[in-house]
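The records we work with from here on pair a chain with its fold. Taken together, the tokens spell out the fold as the letters spell out the chain. To see the layout at work, look at the sequence and tokens printed below.
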Amino acid sequence: MKTNRFVFLTLLVILTLCSYLWLRNIIAGEAMPKGTLTEMTGTVEILKSGEEVWLPAAENIPLTQGDRVKTGSDSAAEITLDNGTIIKIEEDADLTLMLLLYAKEQEETKLHLTKGKAITNVRKDKKGLSKTSIRTLNCVASVRGTEFVVAAGDGNTNIGVFSGEVGVVNVNDAGDETGTGVSVQPDQETKAQLGSEPSAPYAMTAAMAVYRERVKKLAQRAEFNRKRMQHLMKEREKTNRQIIQKWTKIRDERINRLLKDRKGQIKNADKLYRERKVPRR
């Protein structure tokens, strides 16, 4: 059974190398975070950029471009970006930080809400250099200093605006923006479906209006977090060191379970071979 043992040793080397590279990438990737998970309730997980394994999140964890955050049932997560924009995703939501570009001459934030609801408070940009957009399966909502709610799911996207203005354009099957779109004003709402233009803005429905108090609370949180931005950055540096240790332990446990399972398979193969129940190789 030399073949099985060779495979086992090869697997061990590969897993060890992958574990090292994973940890190195986590550390390197967190060298320049662009946001912080400032508050969470229930079950919240994060998929780091370039990774394939979801890991448990923690408050004050640093976030970088490409990170993906999802919530379970009866759960929520608040994300504060370094430019002062704050997003709260509610239960059963999935949000990806597609682009976080924060330079003196340009600021651009691109988010992708795969499913669920996101309440957003975009910091007002007096210089007009900041761009923020949220993409869903059906549309792209672009804003500059506004408060709005995006609800994605069941093939539809509903967008309600509570202050400011939101431009909404359709997204085709290829993911490209099409059409002229619509402009949604305060106390208005629009619905987008794949393959068709967003509906003409209409008076906000009662189902969307229930978010008004949550929008106000998020505005208070946004003001509070913007005042303590430097403190948040220091806290996430400390949390980063702690979470890496926790994630490393989780990764090691998963590797050990995988190796244990592989050992059991080799042991069973050896037994079958000795009993002549498998052909000799």
